[in-house]
Write a structure and sequence with these properties.
The complex is a heterodimer of chains A (319) and B (366). With 319 residues, chain A is an all-alpha fold. Chain A is built from 14 helices and 2 strands; from the N terminus they run αααααβαααααβαααα. The longest helix of chain A has 37 residues. Chain A starts with a helix and ends with a helix. In chain A, 48% of the residues are buried. Chain B is an all-alpha fold and 366 residues long. Chain B folds into 2 domains: 69 residues; 266 residues, Orthogonal Bundle (ABC transporter involved in vitamin B12 uptake, BtuC). Helix content of chain B is 78%, strand content 0%. The longest helix of chain B is centred in the N-terminal third of the chain and has 43 residues. Classes of the chains: A mainly alpha (319), B mainly alpha (366). Chains A and B meet through helix 5, helix 11, helix 13 and helix 14 of A and helix 6, helix 7, helix 12 and helix 14 of B.
């Protein structure tokens, strides 16, 4: 089987990478907020699922994709609040609550799909108003660059801009400082008068809102439909990205771009005469490789630090 | 020590056990009633009759001998998947890859079932089951490597292997072993010598169910009566304590993962060899995920997995009848399951009853 590489790596592939990165990136940025407060948020997948579903409901109800986004915000905020209350007030294990949230999300969307939208498995209708692509004023006239950067859906721009916002909030605002303090040392946070519980509530709700955007992007851009398992593990990939970057936004972005590329490549390769099952494994195998790479990187860093320390001790002993 | 002094601990012990059983029982009763009540409200909101719906659900699950037997048959794979989850979670290894391990196990059993010819049933059946167990267990090896070598939590890798495993079996069923006459995307039929024997004409129930019941007790014995099982539980309860007292933490994680994968792989083998008779690409509507919920419902106790699985199977089978008879969509059951899960995770009522029992014991001791 001969495949011309030039036919695969194209400008449209890079544009598709940005597009496929978007939902994972949104979930990752949201998950960073909960992860920075020390919560391992397993429920991202379920929240995206809820977001994707209610975005469709909202879009049909209001006739506008922004209305859909609003519905998704509300639904995901409520779901996050339930999560927060069960974890923070009733003291249930965060992982178990997260798993329950995922399972609840699947059951609920499955049921409401039949109940509200009257169809089992998926819902597609001209009543769903999706987002329309937006051109960037100056860039749209520059060749090549316009194909890559311009003409995307609004949430693509929003997602990448939010990376900067998340970075600034985490490292340049008092709130970000409080968030990180709660995650690193609860006692220290309490000592300076921060309520860890309140910060965790806020972190979880922000995670929910970001997942709402990620879910909305999945259902209201390009395809304008909702189907079961639409999230396809992206919430979990986001967890891997958070893990890769140890809760920092910039390495998280890099991990998301790698996944986005693998996703885009898989889509592209499907047009060739390859078994789709094998091609579709690509993003998931990439996730495993990224996890391993992150672990190896951390290990070598640790080893180097250990060697440095040993040398210093040696120098101190000989002096 | 006087007579009373000897008697008191025994009385206390019985009181303790009794209060635990009572609070657990009340806890589950309330959770069940609340879950069904939420389902009833949902049904009522869609202008249908909840009583009629639940009546037909009950009849669909346990209406007669055959219906009951079919429900038990449905519970087979759920029991094995629930046990797989229980072993892993007891050891604090969050194996989220049950679904993938189930598919891989089912495919391996099917392949041995239609490729290996000329064996008597007494050899062919165990061989297929073994293939399922091995495939399910082997599918966890990369995750174990990740966890032990690099200390990567198992959740994300196991989940990724779900997708990879399901896609791999799909690939095999579509491109390597496709049988176009199957009507669905599936492999050729298993040879008769590889099928699990049915023992009640008119029902799908087969010896797979017996195997599952035996496994419940084997897993119970292993987890609670052997040294290795004890180590697994201690590692799950408190890894740093286990490490400090010289227990093989890594080995326990390794074992828990292997056993978990093997059990759910066996589940895949039993449903393919018993119910379907061939591998089809979407044979599981999420039995691996159900197993996790069943285990949580059973508080990760192997014996508790049995009633929890039958309950789940009853909901699934009953829902089909409910939908066809009363028009209530079977997805309602998903809502009931979801709400029950939330109540179980919250442990709200259990803690309340435990508190009440403690008070009651204190006052009655005075």
């Amino acid at each position: 089987m001969e495949i011309d590489l030039r036919g695969i790596i194209t400008v449209s592939l890079i544009a598709a990478t940005l597009r496929m990165t978007t939902p994972v990136l949104l979930a990752t940025m949201g998950g960073i907020f909960s992860s920075q407060t020390g919560i391992f948020h397993v429920g991202l997948e379920g929240l995206m699922d809820i977001g994707a579903f209610f975005a469709v409901v909202g879009s049909v109800a209001t006739g506008s994709p922004w209305g859909g986004l609003l519905y998704a915000f509300v639904a995901c905020t409520i779901a996050s609040l339930i999560f927060a209350v069960i974890h923070l007030e009733l003291g249930a294990n965060e992982i178990i609550v997260g798993l329950a949230l995922n399972i609840f999300a699947i059951g609920m969307t499955k049921y409401l799909l039949v109940e509200i939208l009257g169809n089992a498995g998926y819902y597609q209708s001209p009543l769903i108003k999706g987002f329309s692509p937006v051109d960037i004023p100056i860039i749209k006239d520059i060749p090549i660059l316009n194909e890559i950067l311009s003409g995307h859906f609004p949430l693509v721009y929003i997602a990448f801009l939010l990376v900067i916002v998340v970075y600034l909030v985490l490292y340049k605002t008092p709130f970000g400082f409080h968030l990180r303090t709660v995650g690193e040392k609860v006692e220290a946070a309490q000592a300076i008068g921060i309520s860890p519980k309140r910060i965790k509530y806020i972190g979880l709700i922000i995670a929910g809102i970001f997942c709402a955007m990620g879910g909305t992007f999945l259902s209201l851009s390009y395809l304008n439909l909702f189907s079961e398992n639409m999230t396809a593990g992206r919430g979990w990939v986001a967890l891997a990205a958070i893990n890769f970057g140890l809760g920092r936004p910039i390495p998280g972005l890099i991990a998301c771009l790698i996944f986005g590329f693998a996703d885009a490549l898989a889509l592209r390769l499907q047009q060739f005469d390859l078994p789709s099952q094998v091609v579709l494994m690509l993003p998931y195998i990439t996730t495993l490789l990224v996890l391993a790479a992150a672990a190896i990187r951390q290990e070598t860093r640790k080893r180097r630090a250990g060697r440095l320390k040993a040398e210093q001790e040696k120098a101190a002993a000989s002096a | 020590m006087n007579k009373n002094g000897l008697k008191l601990p025994l009385r206390k012990q019985i009181l303790n056990i009794l209060s635990e059983v009572l609070s657990q029982g009340l806890n589950y009763l309330i959770i069940l009633v609340l879950g069904l009540a939420i389902g009833a409200v949902v049904i009522w909101l869609s202008d249908l009759d909840p009583v009629a719906a639940y009546t037909s659900l009950w009849k669909g699950a346990f209406g007669n001998v055959y219906k009951t037997a079919d429900t038990l048959d449905r519970s087979t794979v759920l029991i094995l998947s629930g046990l797989a989850a229980a072993v892993a979670y007891r050891t604090n290894v969050f194996n989220l890859g049950l679904e993938g391990q189930l598919y891989v196990g089912g495919m391996a059993a099917a392949m041995v079932g239609f490729l290996v010819q000329g064996l008597p049933s007494a050899i062919h059946v165990p061989l297929c089951l073994l293939a399922g167990v091995l495939a399910g267990a082997l599918w966890t090896i990369p995750v174990i490597y990740f966890r032990i070598k690099w200390n990567i939590p198992v959740m994300v890798p196991t989940l990724m292997l779900n997708y990879i495993g399901i896609l791999l079996t799909q690939y095999l069923a579509v491109f390597k072993f496709n049988d176009p006459t199957s009507g669905m995307i599936g492999t050729p039929k298993l040879l008769d010598s590889a099928r699990l024997m049915k023992f009640l004409p008119g029902s799908t129930i087969n010896i797979g169910f017996i195997i599952a019941i035996v496994m419940v007790f084997v897993v119970y014995w292993f987890m609670f009566k052997t040294r290795t099982g004890y180590e697994l539980r201690i590692v799950g309860f408190n890894p740093s304590f286990a490490a400090a007292s010289g227990m093989p933490v890594n080995r326990s994680i390794f074992l828990a993962m292997l056993i978990s994968g093997g059990l759910v792989g066996l589940g895949g083998a039993t449903i393919i060899m018993g119910f379907f008779g061939r591998f089809i690409t979407s044979f599981s509507p999420g039995y691996g995920w159900d197993g996790m919920m069943i285990s949580l419902l059973a508080q990760n106790h192997p014996i508790g997995v049995l009633p929890a699985s039958i309950f789940y199977a009853a909901l699934a089978n009953g829902a089909l009848t409910m939908q066809s008879q009363t028009g209530v969509p079977q997805a309602v059951v998903g809502m009931v399951k979801g709400s029950i899960m939330f109540f179980v995770t919250a442990q709200l009522f259990l803690n309340y009853f435990r508190g009440r029992m403690r008070k009651w014991k204190l006052t009655s001791a005075e």
